[in-house]
Write a structure and sequence with these properties.
Length: 357
């Protein structure tokens, strides 16, 4: 009986022991990061975010990996500021408890724990252990997921708004240069010589062109006179860019001077030479709302999302003081002269200015 009591006592004490161990780990993490752990509410007090050399070098390293070059001074400034913004957004996501409610984050952290050797079959226990180790703050995939969740929450509010026809027309007038209709050509083409045959028009090609012009052959009856190919025979209202995508740039460049209503050629393409009948050529012009209404709706929605995310960032920046401790690249020293150690620059976002110290 005494043995059973001792066994029962051990089983009852085990969860308590685990609770105190995890609690101690959480307090340790808190001491490491110098801030309270997220409790599901937005951060209320103004917090300090320090972007040190390691964080800055990480942001610059990602740029180097993506572009194959070091950033320019202007790009460097933007990269550092973007890294600071990401840190603010991630901290706010953690303060709101988004990591607790996101299945992707949970699966990632549980997978991390199992990768490092944690074989606990209890998924929740593995998740809590990962939190105790601070993985939700340092894992790049988790950070990007949380930042994306914050962006989506901001954009979702913008998506609730609907635009009127008057608003869309005003938007179109303001951004008319983005809604220019391209040149459009309606044509029929007949291939009269393939590219592999001659570099210039041969006798047979010229004979076909002359026959088309002399009879004259209506465009609708011309297909049988040309060489067989997989190229489209008739095209309606295609832009120069679309025609270049089908026939090649030389073909599209040759069209503007051609006169509508007659056979022209030989017109070169990437595939050979062609006789071309131009039905109509419309010059580029500003679009009317009914022609681009869906595109205007999409552009307005994208602009609302961008502004909504910017407003969210603006509000968050007021709750976080950002200090950037940056060692800039020093100018090369003259030969024989030692280079001075670069100064540490501290930039506080709220002041918007840098100062050396």
């Amino acid at each position: 009986m005494s043995t059973e009591r001792r066994s029962l006592s051990r089983r009852m004490l085990e969860p308590v022991a685990v609770f105190f161990v995890l609690g101690g780990a959480l307090l340790l993490v808190r001491s490491w990061f110098g801030e309270s752990l997220p409790v599901g509410e937005p951060a209320a007090e103004r917090q300090l975010v320090v972007m040190g050399a390691d964080e800055i070098e990480s942001a610059l390293g990602r740029h180097l990996g993506q572009t194959g070059r070091r950033p320019t001074p202007e790009e460097r400034e933007r990269l550092i500021e973007a890294a600071a913004d990401e840190e603010i957004v991630v901290r706010e996501a953690l303060a709101r408890g988004l990591h607790e409610r996101d299945s992707v984050v949970r699966q990632r952290l549980v997978r991390n724990m199992r990768f490092v050797g944690e074989r606990d079959e209890d998924e929740d226990a593995s998740f809590r252990a990962a939190l105790a180790l601070g993985m939700h703050r340092t894992d790049l995939v988790v950070r990007r997921r949380l930042a994306e969740r914050m962006r989506r929450e901001a954009e979702a509010k913008a998506d609730e708004k609907r635009s009127t026809a008057e608003q869309r027309r005003a938007f179109l007038d303001e951004h008319i240069e983005d809604f220019q209709l391209p040149e459009q050509t309606t044509l029929t083409q007949v291939m009269i010589q393939k590219a592999a045959e001659h570099s210039t028009a041969g006798d047979q090609a010229l004979a076909v062109l002359e026959r088309l012009r002399a009879e004259p052959v209506p465009p609708g009856e011309s297909r049988e006179l040309g060489l067989s190919s997989l190229l489209p025979w008739h095209l309606e209202r295609r832009s120069d860019q679309e025609l270049a995508g089908v026939f090649g740039a030389p073909f599209a460049r040759a069209l503007p001077p051609l006169q509508p209503g007659s056979w022209s050629g030989p017109v070169p393409s990437s595939f050979g030479l062609h006789a071309v009948w131009i039905y109509e050529r419309r010059e580029s012009r500003p679009a009317r709302l009914e022609e681009v209404d869906e595109a205007v709706r999409a552009a307005m929605a994208q602009e609302r999302r961008r502004l909504a995310y910017g407003e969210m960032l603006k509000g968050l920046r007021e709750r976080y003081e950002v200090r950037i401790e940056d060692a800039p690249v020093a100018e090369p020293a003259e030969v024989g002269e030692p280079a001075d150690a670069p100064p540490v620059i501290v930039w506080e976002r709220k002041k918007g200015a840098r100062k050396k110290r």
